[in-house]
Amino acid sequence: MTTYDYDIGIIGGGAAGLTVAAGASQLGAKTLLVEREPRLGGDCLHYGCVPSKTLIKSAKVHHLMRHAEQYGLPRVEIPPVDFRQIRARIRAVIDTIQHHDSEERFCGLGAKVTFGAATFSDDHSVRIDGGPAVTARSWVIATGSSAARPPIPGLDRTPVLTNRELFDLDRLPATMIILGAGPIGAEMSQAFARLGTRVTVVDQGHHILPREDRDLSDTLRRVLASEGVEFQLGCTIEGVRELGHTREVRVRTADRRELRLTAEAVLVALGRSANTAGMGLETLGIEHDRRGIKVDSRMRTGIKHLYAAGDVAGGPQFTHAAGYTGGIVVSNAVFHLPRKADFTWLPWCTYTDPPLASIGMNETAAKAAGIGYTLWTEEFQANDRSLAEGEGTGRIKMLLNSSERPIGVQILGPNAGDLIAEWVAVLNGKVKLATLAAAVHPYPTVAEINKRVAGNVFSEKIFSEKVRKGLKLIFQFKGRACTLPDEAAP
Prior knowledge:
- By secondary structure, the protein is an alpha/beta fold.
- The chain has 3 domains: 6-41 and 101-146 and 273-334, FAD/NAD(P)-binding domain (3-Layer(bba) Sandwich), CATH 3.50.50.60; 155-271, 3-Layer(bba) Sandwich (FAD/NAD(P)-binding domain); 348-465, Enolase-like, domain 1, CATH 3.30.390.
- It has 16 helices and 23 strands.
- The strands form 6 sheets. Strands 1, 2, 3, 4, 5, 6 and 18 form a 7-stranded mixed sheet that branches. The chain has a 5-stranded antiparallel sheet with strand order 19-20-23-22-21, sandwiched between helices.
- A hairpin with a 2-residue loop joins β16 (288-289) and β17 (292-293).
- α1 (15-26) runs parallel beside α10 and α3 runs parallel beside α7.
- The protein starts with 5 loop residues before the first strand and ends in a 15-residue tail after the last helix.
- The relative contact order is 0.11.
């Protein structure tokens, strides 16, 4: 029987890799975790979710201070933002979370952590920084993704920002052009605009957040525009170049006009590319492309004892999805149980203000799949807590199939990322819609909107003319006690 140095080896110390390492080591598997960067945590901790949400919070507080009079408070005059202070706060938050993602913690769980670049020698062996071969019965590739660099003329010769550099700026740019109107572009455009940067978002699509329904993304775009974000949508980016202290982005509009936009900084937010280079995947014959490594539903590559998880596996690009696929790997590689990944009820959220959260199918996806549905909505303007908070923009949308079962929910409104969590439980737990409608929610909370939209389905039936006539017949009810003047018969 062949013996190996480790039961399982993991390449990549981000969300997926850390999930596998923690699970495997605590289950008694001799575990090796290899990370190319000098610290564990991956892109999410150091260059993505954590710093961006920390920045978003600072920007929101700044925005509230500047609009204090909207809440019945005295107008406040505040000095310009010193981005170095925001940067210091971002680093402090990262450092606090880093303790949880430290080498010491994982050593305490039983996993060996090694820093360096791993390259496969064969399907059971890797060399770390060219050193001697290290073997494992199974390997997991969890190397994540990086900001994509599209072949835009001049982009490779122009100093631009990606998520790796954005949160380490020495000062707040006076002007910024963001290439891309996806989640990163939307979040960062609002955050920097609120801090005082004049922001222009450029995208070839005709609306922001193209994965979302147009009515919700257009509502959000109007909010961002009201806060000063400018949009150039439906444009082709024809070139980027450096002009000394500024950068120029040349675009062609949908009506074929040429625009030359200039700004101090250009942020590239045009998607992600899987980190697959330099690991020797080609020599193993592992199929992969820019989107990621090809895996089956059990997260296995073409070589069954080699797994891929997280962004590098080409699935949904979310930290919580990475953690989920890491759990799938643990089930298959450690327990040897054939558990399959299922993203049907995977939620996601764009953390603008208001945020936009989704789970399941939206109207766009349902129409593309040819699935019939009925749509139920509830406006945040009708939610008492939203009005008290001064956050009445947005709505919840619930799609029901022909059996009146939810196939998807979208929420644009305050605390949407938290509100969608109730639907995570409802949909994964197969909770009946009537159960949600009958459940008591605390008042006043924005969470009542979940109960209200579910209740609307039954209210239409309960308070129908047919039910009224039946009750009148059985109980001899006398009908209305009051009629408004405009409802009176002529």
